[in-house]
Structure formats: C-alpha cells, structure tokens
Amino acid sequence: MQINDALETYTGDDEEHKSFAFMHCWYRLKDEDKWKSWRLELSTKQKPAAKKQKSTKDSTPSAGDEKINDEVVEVADAGSAERKRPPGQKQAKQARWGGNDACIATLDKMMEKKEARDKERDKAREASLEVEKASIEAEKKLAEATLMKEEKDIMLADTSSLNADQLQWIEIMRKKILARHMEN
Questions:
Q1: Same domain, 172 and 105
Q2: How far apart are CA 31 and CA 11, in angstroms?
Q3: What is the mean pLDDT of residues 156-167?
Q4: Is residue 77 part of a domain?
Q5: CB 11 within 8 Å of CB 19
Q6: Which of 24, 67, 136, 168 has a 20 to 30 Å separation from 179 between CA atoms?
Q7: Residue 56, in any domain of the structure
C-alpha cells in the first residue's frame, strides 16, 4: 500500500509525469541492512524545532528529549540475525585478491617455478657445454692426427728426385719436427 502511494507521489512530483523506473532495484535492495536502517532512521526522526532553547544546569529535560534518549533502534530484526552489513570496497578488494597472504603465496609459487626453470636451463647449458667440449676435443685430435700424418710424410719423403731448394726445405722441416718432438 505504501509503495503504491509512493509511486503515485513520485509520478505527481515529476515534471514530465514519468513513473519510477527503478522498482526492480528497490525490490532487490529494500531488505538490505543498510536500507533498513536508513528507513528506520527516517521513520523515527522527528522534525527539528525551529528555534533551539538554551539549556542550563537547572533545566529539566522536555518530554521530547526523553523520547529520543529512551529509544534504541535495532537494525536487524529477529529473522535476519545472521545477516551482516555488506563489506566496503577495501574489504571486497582484499577478499577478491586474497589479502597479503595470498599475494605472498602466489609470489612464492612463481619464484619456485622460476627456480625450477632456471635449474633445468642450467642443466641444459651444462649438457651443451659438455657436447661442445667433446666436439672441441675431437677437433683437436683430428688436427693432431692430420699434423702427425703431414710430419710423417715429410720425415719419410723420397729425396732422390728433388732439386737443391726442395731438398733444403725438407731438411729444415725435418729439423723443426725433431726439435718440437724433443721438447715434448
């Protein structure tokens, strides 16, 4: 009944005589604690006096003052004793993000994953280095084998068909080869 009267009053007060467009919101929010307390506050509020009188120590409280002091308004009724006021923005954000503990736990998990990836990367690098070292060692052995073959060819070369310059070069190379092997 009161809602219908309020709707008629709203339509009458509106310059364009439009109806209240947010009834779906009203039906959803009317039972929330915040709006219940506001409605109770509006219903219990008395109109303030036009002129306040000066109070003294000797003065006695008026009948209206007794009424205000004696009234205690309870927001939640017996049916909704479990209901609490909804959280504010900060509490909602903190709950959504899980607070500092959840952030720290998430960061810890991220660091553990990063450390695991770093360990795997280090193992892969070590394996790559081992393969590279083996490849270098094989190249050294191949180069040494090639050098030994060339030195053998020089040491065992047939000098009977060589001219004087070629013979001189062969003798110099033989001396260098012998000197190098004597040092080792």
A1: yes
A2: 24
A3: 90
A4: no
A5: yes
A6: 136
A7: no
Residue 37 shares a structural domain with residue 110: no
Decide if 107 is inside a domain: yes
Q: What is the DSSP string of 122-168?
A: HHHHHHHHHHHHHHHHHHHHHHHHHHHHHHHHHHT---TT--HHHHH
Q: Round the average pLDDT of the chain to a whole number and report it.
A: 79
**One-letter identity of residue 159:** T
Per-residue pLDDT, 147: 93
Its pTM surpasses 0.85: no
Per-residue pLDDT tens over the stretch 29-55? 888 777 777 778 878 875 555 555 555
Is there a domain that residue 142 lies in?
yes
Range(s) of the domain holding residue 165: 101-183
Residue 19: its H or E element: none
